[in-house]
Write a structure and sequence with these properties.
The N terminus and C terminus are likely disordered. The protein is an all-alpha fold. It is globular.
């Protein structure tokens, strides 16, 4: 079988950017996901403010990010295994009910004045565990609902919602803190998550690949997922680039306030606008990808987006001017859109049905390295300065992306029909 990757997504141009919404079940799934994404960003902002007020320590605030994404490293592949082994509708419903219960408990503790620092870390860790367990199933469901021809548009629209939440969630949380304190923001989160669960239940979600979940064989299945990813060159390239981006690019978001204050000499208002720049770029980049009727080279978009995002980061690290810094982060966000949309899409297109969830689980495992990226940028910034640390991250990121592109060129350079690849038993280790 050819090792080349190409997907021709054929849709009538009249269907437009939002053609996935012609599927009634996707119309229920999308707002459910959107409200969940907003709640996640709200929680990060609300608890960051809570911890900062409680400790007056940037280090303790940074630990929130560590504990938020640590479960992805520990449970990401378990989520992939569950997506392949249990009813996906049931899995999504249970994880969201658990997340809602966690939010309700945190809200009660806030209103009672009993929430402490360790509670905040526990809340983000447990919530992060629900994200890790349901992320592969959430992506697989989009494929189940829309099929091979519609999955790229569906994933693009899902990323539009995700990136839109990065603008809305923090801003809304900040407004609610101003008006009602942190506990008022958590009360709104309870409402959002409740509506999301109702919308999720209204969607008729296929159960997915129905096999028997055997807890005693979890380790063996996880090893199988890793072996599958290693032998499929397309999936391997996606995983390697995901590790690189989550170690070196995405963690810089936590040091933007430091650069805004110490390098660009702006206050918290302009700092907040600067922090939203990458989200704005990702929003419009994802919307553009969703509007495309035909995407012939998913791998090239993925790699090109990763490189563009890193070049934007490099320009940001050198900038001494606020306007240029904003534009640089905007460009970074546009590149990240290509990375984010194609990351899961390619894996879903090239994986066998019974292995899709496990392959996505390996991607979740790769995303799980981000807590260590946060610690890395923090240590590097302490040693050589924040702007210099960002420069080092960007240069190393570009070099590593280039190496992956050279060593595994087939995933971006060549073209074949990925839909046929995914539909067939692609056991050829050369894929």
């Amino acid at each position: 079988m050819s090792s080349k990757l190409k997907t021709n997504v054929r849709r009538r141009s009249s269907a437009g950017t939002f053609r996935a919404f012609s599927n009634s079940n996707f119309r229920f799934l999308w707002p459910a996901n959107f409200l969940i994404y907003i709640s996640r960003w709200m929680q990060m902002t609300l608890l960051a403010w809570f911890v900062l007020e409680l400790t007056d320590s940037a280090w303790y605030v940074s630990l929130l990010g560590f504990f938020t994404f640590l479960p992805m490293l520990v449970l990401g592949m378990v989520g992939g295994l569950l997506a392949d082994s249990v009813n996906r509708r049931m899995l999504l419903t249970i994880t969201q009910l658990v997340a809602l219960a966690i939010t309700i408990v945190a809200t009660a503790l806030l209103y009672a004045g009993l929430l402490e620092l360790w509670h905040a870390y526990t809340v983000v860790f447990l919530t992060g565990a629900t994200w890790a367990l349901d992320m592969p199933a959430r992506s697989s469901v989009i494929h189940d609902l829309l099929g091979v021809n519609g999955v790229t548009n569906g994933m693009s629209l899902d990323v539009v919602g995700m990136t839109g939440s990065t603008m809305i969630g923090p801003a809304l949380a900040g407004l609610l803190i101003t008006l009602f304190d942190v506990k008022g923001g958590y009360a709104v989160m309870v409402a959002f998550q409740s509506v999301a669960i109702v919308s999720l239940l209204l969607a008729r979600i296929p159960s997915g690949y129905d096999s028997v979940f055997a807890p005693a064989k979890i380790f063996a299945n996880l090893i199988e997922g890793l072996r599958y990813a290693r032998t499929q060159r397309v999936v391997l390239a996606i995983i390697l680039i995901t590790v690189i981006m989550n170690l070196l690019l995405f963690p810089i978001m936590q040091v933007i306030p430091v650069i805004a204050r110490d390098v660009l000499n702006v206050g918290p208002g302009l700092m907040g606008v600067l922090g939203s720049a990458s989200g704005i770029g990702s929003f419009f980049g994802s919307l553009f990808l969703a509007s495309l009727v035909s995407i012939n080279r998913h791998g090239a978009v993925f790699l090109g987006g990763s490189i563009l995002g890193t070049m934007g980061l490099l320009a940001f690290s050198f900038s001494q001017w606020y306007g240029l810094s904003f534009v640089a982060l905007l460009v970074m966000g546009i590149g990240v859109a290509g990375f984010g949309v194609m990351q899961m899409t390619i894996v879903m297109l090239v994986s066998r049905d019974e292995m899709r969830g496990r392959a996505l689980g390996v991607v979740s495992l790769a995303i799980g390295v981000s807590p260590f990226g946060a610690l890395l940028i923090g240590a590097l910034a302490s040693a050589i300065g924040t702007a210099n640390a960002v420069t080092v991250n960007a240069v190393v990121c570009l070099v590593l992306l280039g190496l992956v592109a050279i060593v595994l060129p087939s995933f971006w350079r060549d073209s074949s029909n990925a839909a046929q690849t995914g539909a067939s038993a692609n056991a050829d280790p050369a894929l």
